[in-house]
Structures are given as structure tokens and as C-alpha cells.
UniProtKB/TrEMBL annotation:
Keywords: Decarboxylase, Flavoprotein, FMN, Ligase, Lyase, Magnesium, Metal-binding, Multifunctional enzyme. Residues 190-400 form the DNA/pantothenate metabolism flavoprotein C-terminal domain. Catalyzes two sequential steps in the biosynthesis of coenzyme A. In the first step cysteine is conjugated to 4'-phosphopantothenate to form 4-phosphopantothenoylcysteine. In the second step the latter compound is decarboxylated to form 4'-phosphopantotheine. Transmembrane segments: none annotated. Pathway: Cofactor biosynthesis; coenzyme A biosynthesis; CoA from (R)-pantothenate: step 3/5; Cofactor biosynthesis; coenzyme A biosynthesis; CoA from (R)-pantothenate: step 2/5. The keyword Membrane does not apply. This is Coenzyme A biosynthesis bifunctional protein CoaBC. GO terms for molecular function: phosphopantothenate--cysteine ligase activity; phosphopantothenoylcysteine decarboxylase activity. Binds 1 FMN per subunit. Residues 1-194 are annotated as: Phosphopantothenoylcysteine decarboxylase. The gene is coaBC. CTP binds at D283, K293, F329, K343, K347.
Length: 410
């Protein structure tokens, strides 16, 4: 299930310094399966030539509708009718003003006025232009007219000073657009389902500056959260330490230790339909956390740390489980299947995702994974080595197939 596959996206580019970023966004949309056509304002063509957009999209670019040599259709109406999704990026103060007032004084604004497709506006301008009451009034008008507007970022502007008005990076714009489109799609495989995901490696404090942790990057859990969101779920991600950016549309609850993670999971477990425990939760924590930094002893004697077991969250949840489908992960370096099978049964899991982290390209930190899916009373299913996002999709597709879930009303 891909939001952008075969989607007709019209990108309207106006004359701002950020217009070069539209090229990157267009590439990313096309990479995800969209067909993109571009309408340029005359001022946009001062920044980037129509030839660049035409070559990138392999589609004719609409600039001046009065010079067309094709008499079979009216340019702006044909493009408006073709459009499934329209994105105004970057949207200058001038374009925003024209659209807010219903003007159709060039091919771009005529197309915007003529289409009934959802319209997304990505403003980008100088901070004073953005803060100007006229621009703010025009943006409110766009929202009142049913367009969806992205708030610009706070940051360094082309003028050399910082302020609000900067266009977010294409990756962030794509994430926002994708999430908006998911919200508009009434029936996706996980629509109406609440999915709880844990990710990252927990940290068990030894003193104020040191902790025990593990090599988990959080990438697998974040991929599951993003994939579940793309499949329409309402997703809560309980995140132990990672350096990853929150997936769009996902509620992220940061935690540090195994105990904090356990409390957060228990709080949210009852209301969820699916729990995916992808976090690497420490099995042990120090018996004692020093309030002050542990100093080297004068005699340089060895330091012994005493550790005690943390709560086994999955085991605890096995007793609380009612309707929830529970997925666990097992990262092993030996006896993968035997250890995983034992974990599946002893913790009453519905699905266990086992990975042999001693293999190259598998498990911690990398962007790829190869896993074996274990379910009670079924033959194990081993995937190919593939991206963590593809593994996430496979896990969730398996869950949907196993549960027989049909999309629910939101
Ligand atoms: C170098 C340069 C950079 C500009 N950058 C922006 C910008 O980022 N945002 C904006 O709203 N206007 C910007 N402008 C002003 C617009 O180009 C101007 O308002 C123009 O009339 C916009 O026309 P359009 O909206 O039809 O493309 C810039 C102008 C120049 C000369």
C-alpha cells in the first residue's frame, strides 16, 4: 500500500529563492510512484528554467497557456482535471495573495482555481513578509477556503538573518504531505487501529554521567511506527534513546530506563490493538544508582558493579493481555530459532520477529535486516535481506493477515 503510487501530483512553483528545493521534492514524489506535472509562474521561471522541470518530470511544463500549439484542450483545465493532489511549493507571499483572492491571472493560478483536488500550500518567504498582517490574513483565507497550509520553519533565511518563513527541507515536506494524504484516505489496512510500538535502547544509570546501554539504533521500531502510520493506524511510539527523527503523524513518548519504558507500555497497553516491542530493553540495571559521580579509588582497585534483573515486560503483559495482538523481537547471536521459539511460547506472543544479529547487514544500527517470523503452530517464515522499512511492512502485513482485521471507521 503506497499513498503516492500512480498518484497525479501537480506541483505549482512560484518565484522564491527556495524554488530549487521543489526539484528535490518532485524527485522524491516520483521515487514513491507519483506522476508529477509542474506549473510555473513567470517569476519562478526566473529562478529555475522550465527545461529543468520538464527533464526531471518527463512531462510538459505549464507556463503560458496562451502559447500552446495543441488545440485539443484548454491547458489549465486539462491539468486541473488530471490532478489528484496539488502542492504549491514554494508558495510566495504574492502567490498566496493571488490564491486567497481567487485570481486566475496566469496559467498557475488558473489551474489552482480550476482544480477540485486537495491543495497543499508550503509558504516560503522573508520573515517580515510572513509576519505581515496581509500575508497572515491571506493564509487564514486559504485555510477557510479548504486549503491545507504548512507552517514555515524558524531558521536562517537567504537574507542572512534568522526568522520564521524558511521552507522546511523536502524530506520534511514529503512526510507532512504523506501524513495529510493518509488522513484523507478513509480506508487503509490499519485504519481505526491503535498501534503501540517501542524502539531504541534503554539506559540504566550508574551515576549522573554514566549508564549501561546497548547497540540498538531504534531504526527497526521507528520503521514499524512509520509503516503502521502509512497503513492508517493511530500510532504511539515509546522511544528509548535514539538519534532518529519522529515519523510524521506519530505520537512519540520519550523514555530513558527499562522501568520508564515498562510504565509507559503498561499505561498504553490496554487501549492498543497491536503492540510491537522492538525496543532493546536492558535485562539488568545497577542495584544502586550513585547520586554523585563514581570516583576512581585511591588504590586503583577493581570496581565491581552489582546488577539486578529488570522487569520482563512481555512476560508481565502476557497476564494482562485481552484482545491485543502482541509482537516481540528476539535478537540472538546463537541458537536463533530455538531461543526464539522458547520466547514465543513462554511469553504468549502472537508473533515473534527473530534476527541473528551476528550476521552482516542484520539487526542493530544498519538500515537493513533479515528476520524470521514465528507464529504459534505455524512454520517459520524467513524474509530476504531487505530495508528495515520493507521488513516493517512485512511484519504488519502478516499481522493484518493473521488477525483478519478489516479497516474500521476512524
Ligand atoms: C532573489 C529574489 C528572491 C525572492 N524570494 C522570495 C521568497 O522566498 N518568497 C517570496 O514570497 N518572494 C520572494 N521574492 C519576491 C517574488 O519573486 C515576487 O514577489 C514575485 O512577484 C513573485 O511572483 P509569483 O508569486 O508570481 O511567482 C524574491 C525575489 C527575488 C528577486
Amino acid at each position: 500500500m503506497e499513498i503516492w503510487k500512480d498518484c497525479h501530483v501537480t506541483v505549482v512553483v512560484s518565484g522564491g529563492i527556495a524554488s530549487y528545493k521543489a526539484l528535490v521534492l518532485i524527485r522524491q514524489l516520483m521515487k514513491r510512484g507519483a506522476t508529477v506535472r509542474v506549473a510555473l509562474t513567470a517569476h519562478a521561471a526566473e529562478f529555475i528554467t522550465p527545461l529543468t522541470f520538464q527533464t526531471l518530470t518527463r512531462q510538459p511544463v505549464v507556463l503560458n497557456e496562451f502559447t500552446t500549439s495543441d488545440p485539443s484542450h484548454v491547458v489549465h483545465v486539462a491539468l486541473a482535471d488530471w490532478t489528484d493532489v496539488m502542492v504549491l511549493v514554494p508558495a510566495t507571499a504574492n502567490l498566496i495573495a493571488r490564491v486567497a483572492n481567487g485570481l486566475a491571472d496566469d496559467a498557475a493560478t488558473s489551474t489552482i482555481l480550476a482544480t477540485t483536488a486537495p491543495k497543499y500550500v508550503v509558504p516560503a518567504m522573508n520573515s517580515h513578509m510572513y509576519a505581515n498582517p496581509a500575508t497572515q490574513r491571506n493564509l487564514r483565507q486559504l485555510v477557510a477556503d479548504g486549503l491545507t497550509v504548512l507552517t514555515p520553519a524558524d531558521g536562517m533565511l537567504a537574507e542572512g538573518y534568522a526568522g520564521r518563513g524558511r521552507m522546511p527541507e523536502p524530506e520534511a515536506i514529503l512526510a507532512w504531505l504523506t501524513d495529510q494524504q493518509i488522513q484523507r484516505t478513509p480506508s487503509l489496512p490499519l485504519t481505526g487501529r491503535r498501534v503501540l510500538v517501542t524502539a531504541g535502547g534503554t539506559r540504566e544509570a550508574l551515576d549522573p554521567v554514566r549508564y549501561i546501554t546497548n547497540r540498538s539504533s531504534g531504526k527497526m521500531g521507528y520503521a514499524v511506527a512509520a509503516a503502521a502510520r502509512t497503513m492508517g493506524a493511530q500510532v504511539t511510539l515509546i522511544s528509548a534513546a535514539t538519534h532518529l527523527r519522529a515519523p510524521a503523524g506519530v505520537q512519540v513518548l520519550p523514555v530513558a530506563s527499562a522501568a520508564e519504558l515498562r510504565d509507559a507500555v503498561v499505561t498504553h497497553f490496554e487501549a492498543c490493538d497491536l503492540l510491537v516491542m522492538a525496543a532493546a530493553v536492558s535485562d539488568y540495571r545497577p542495584v544502586q544508582t550513585n547520586q554523585q559521580k563514581i570516583k576512581k579509588p585511591q588504590d586503583h582497585a577493581d570496581l565491581t558493579l552489582q546488577l539486578t534483573e529488570t522487569t520482563d515486560i512481555l512476560k508481565e503483559l502476557a497476564t494482562r493481555k485481552t484482545h491485543q495482538y502482541v509482537v516481540g523481537f528476539a535478537a540472538e547471536t546463537q541458537n536463533l530459532l530455538a531461543n526464539a521459539q522458547h520466547k514465543l511460547t513462554s511469553k504468549r506472543l502472537d508473533l515473534l520477529v527473530a534476527n541473528d544479529v551476528s550476521q552482516p547487514g542484520v539487526g542493530f544500527n544498519g538500515d537493513t535486516n533479515q528476520v524470521t517470523l514465528l507464529r504459534p503452530d505455524q512454520a517459520p517464515l524467513t524474509t530476504a535481506l531487505m530495508s528495515k522499512r520493507a521488513v516493517a511492512n512485512q511484519i504488519l502485513t502478516t499481522v493484518v493477515a493473521e488477525t483478519g482485521w478489516q479497516p474500521q471507521p476512524k
